[in-house]
Structures are given as C-alpha cells and as structure tokens.
Amino acid sequence: MLSINLKTTKTAILAPLFILSIIAFGCNQSKPEKKKRELISFRAYNGINYSEVKRRMRNGLSFNEYGYQLEPQWKLKFVSDDSVSIFSPTKNAFINFPLTRGYDSIFNAARSWLKVKKINKDSITMEILIQKGDSLDVKGTKVFMLFYADNYVKNVLHTDTSILRHPSRRDTLFIESLATKANADYKKAFAARQPAVITSKSPSVTVSQRKTKPDIMNNFDNSDDYLDPTYDIVVNKAFKDFYYSFTMYIDDKGGMHYGYPLVGIDDEEIKADYNHTANAVVESYFKYYFNVKPGSTLGFRHASMVSIHVEGKAAK
Questions:
Q1: What is the pTM of this model?
Q2: Hey, what domains does the chain have and what are their CATH numbers?
Q3: Element (H, E) at 224
C-alpha cells in the first residue's frame, strides 16, 4: 500500500504545474524586497534509495483517536529534478513519476504535495501538504515522514527497515488506553487495525467482506478496509424478503450490537420501525448463525464497528 492519505482530508489529485507568485506589498517602500527562494534541487541525492521508517503526527503518535494509523510505506529514489522513482508494492517494482517543484522546498509527486524540512544523503524529513481546490495549504498538516537511506540503515544503524517501522511504546500505551475505554463502553469503539471477522456457520447464510484493491486511482490506499469494514450478507430461507443497511458494534467478546441505519430516514416513525426490524435481524439471524472474532490493535482486543448490508430471501 502506497499512500499518505489522512482520511479526514484526502490527498489532492495530481494537478498541473503548481505556480506560486510572491508579490511584495507595503506602505513602507524603504523596506527591502524579500528575495524569492530558489527551487529545491535533488541533484546531490539522485540515485540514493530512501525508505520511509516513521510517519508521525505533531504529538509524536502514529495513531489517532479513531484508530487510523499513519503507516510508513514509501520507498523512493530521486532520478532528477523533475522525476522520482517510487516503489509500488502491488506491482513489486519502482515506478517513475513526474516531479513538479513549487517554490522553496515544496514539490508534487505521485499525486501528493510534500514539503522537505531536512534532507541529506542519510535521511529526509518531509511534511505532508493538502491541496484545497486551486490553492495549497502551505501551513502543512503537521504530519511528518522520516526517510533513511538504505545504506545508512544497513551499514550505520545495523538494523532493518521493518524493525524501524514498528509502532512506538507511546503508540502502544495510547491504544491500550483507547481499548480500556472501548471495552468498558462499546459505544466508544474505534477502528481495529485487525478488523473484526464475521463468518457464517450455516449453509443458509453467506457472508462476504468488501475489499479495496489499491491502485493509482485511490493512491494505493486501502485503509477503508479496516476503518470501515463492510460486509454483504445474504440470508436464504428468511421469514420474508428484506434489505437493511446499518452499522453494528462488535465488542471485545465478539458480541454484536445494532448501531444505526446507513440510509437517510427523515420520518421518525419510519426510522423507529426500521431500527426495530433491523435490530431484530441482528438478534435473531446474526446471533445464531455467525461466528465472530473481535477486532484488535497492537495485540489489544477492543470494541469496533462494522457496516452491514443484509438481504433476506424468503423461501419459495
């Protein structure tokens, strides 16, 4: 998976050449005009293989309170000042992308805007930027990517990239605290990094989980698979034909609890009837015909939520 998406604000789609003009205004004409900063050059670092080893928020954590994990995934090599080679895990190969340089240390590659905070032959620190419409928020997201050169990892640190990518002790303590709260009250559920798994124990009921295929169109991002695990369920020989879409809490013991409808219903009476009948489906079919494995994150089992689309087919 190759991605720097934040989920709350999707990474911007690749735009044409980004141009920012610096125009000096001011009443005091005696002040010297600020010099325009030069475009960043990667010439001195061409051909060096860099691997991302950490991706952190400003507070130093890689998880947020909703369970979203910032994963270090990128591998890159600068080819020139207008080209960068980025590793695609789905193709198991490096792919060349155009590299567009903005002003100062800002550049665009692989449908993403980045700002170089520090670069040398051993490491790179970059901040993720977000494009909003035709403008770029240069204040940054305060999400930082740390890369180490492969030679530096092997010959200086004497370790492996996979080890450096492990979540920190602070991440573990943070997730443990979230899990404690969620297990005391399942309505405080958060996304499980290893999502809850629902399987059928009856030939009359089929269960399939939707999977996202990471590709260039979704920026190689399939994190929705754990942020919003979605199941399609068919109940054959049901008491009547029906179709319901709703969320469902799965607690740390594997217990299933009806959440809320995933369809818009304005009429309160109709909504109450929908909730009543959909909950009855959970209490009857689900609790008798499913095996459930609770979700977990960093080894902690905890309450999480899934989306359900269930169809009932009456016996003919």
A1: 0.81
A2: 43-168 (2.40.128.280), 183-314 (no CATH)
A3: helix 224-227
